[in-house]
Amino acid sequence: MAHFAEIKSSDNLVLRVNVKKDSDVEANGGEYTTEVEQWVANNTPQCPIIKAEQGGTYPETFWKQCSYNTRLGVHLLDGTPKRFNYPSPGSYWKNDVEGFTTVKHFDSWVLDNSTLEYKAPVDRPTDEQRKQNPSDENTWYEITGWDEENQYWTGTGTDGNNYSWNGTTWTQIV
């Protein structure tokens, strides 16, 4: 199966991802060609939900093939990575590098141009940093989210308390 993203022409926002048969792709220009992308555009009906969300007028769009197995510029099955990331609604197409961004979840997150991933201003804790007590494998912090207002990661310890991660240390939230 081949995957294609429908992209709004005015701002390069990904609206949806659609799947097509490999045989249709091969019969209409082959993988990652403008011919097959045009074939998808001509043979995929407009989405009524997108039309409703746009106030009843379907936006001008174009289609780009994408790789289901590519994340952060790496192919998960050791193949050739294509277009940086598998897109989802809310991600963007970057024409200058022929790739898809990840979704920008918060205003403070910035784009890493090497992977097209939006990242928090504080790195997410690694598995090693999530250990509550390094000498006890049964204690850890479960990441619960990003706190945009306070600019830190939040987590719950195995002790049941809530904590914040500032990039260096965990601090109990009281």
What does this entry look like structurally?
By secondary structure, this protein is an alpha+beta fold. It folds into 2 domains: 118 residues, no CATH class; 53 residues. 13% of the residues lie in helices and 31% in strands. It has 3 helices and 13 strands. The strands form 5 sheets. It has a 4-stranded antiparallel sheet, with no helix packed on it. The protein has a 3-stranded antiparallel sheet with strand order 2-1-3. A two-stranded antiparallel ribbon has the order 4-5. It is elongated, with a radius of gyration of 20 Å.
Helix content: 10-25%
- Which strand order do you get reading across the main beta sheet? 10-11-12-13
Structural class: alpha+beta
- Spatial gap, N to C terminus: 50 Å
Using only C-alpha atoms, the radius of gyration works out to: 20 Å
Q: Which percent range describes the beta-strand content?
A: 25-35%
Largest sheet: 4 strands, antiparallel
Summarize the structure.
With 174 residues, the protein is α+β, with helices and mostly antiparallel strands.
Describe the structure using short key phrases:
174 residues, alpha+beta, 2 domains, 3-stranded antiparallel sheet, 3 helices, 13 strands, 31% strand
SSE inventory with pairings:
Layout: E1 2-8, E2 14-20, H1 22-27, H2 34-43, H3 48-53, E3 61-66, E4 70-71, E5 74-75, E6 93-94, E7 99-100, E8 110-112, E9 117-119, E10 141-147, E11 152-157, E12 162-165, E13 170-172
Antiparallel strand pairs: 1-2, 1-3, 4-5, 6-7, 8-9, 10-11, 11-12, 12-13
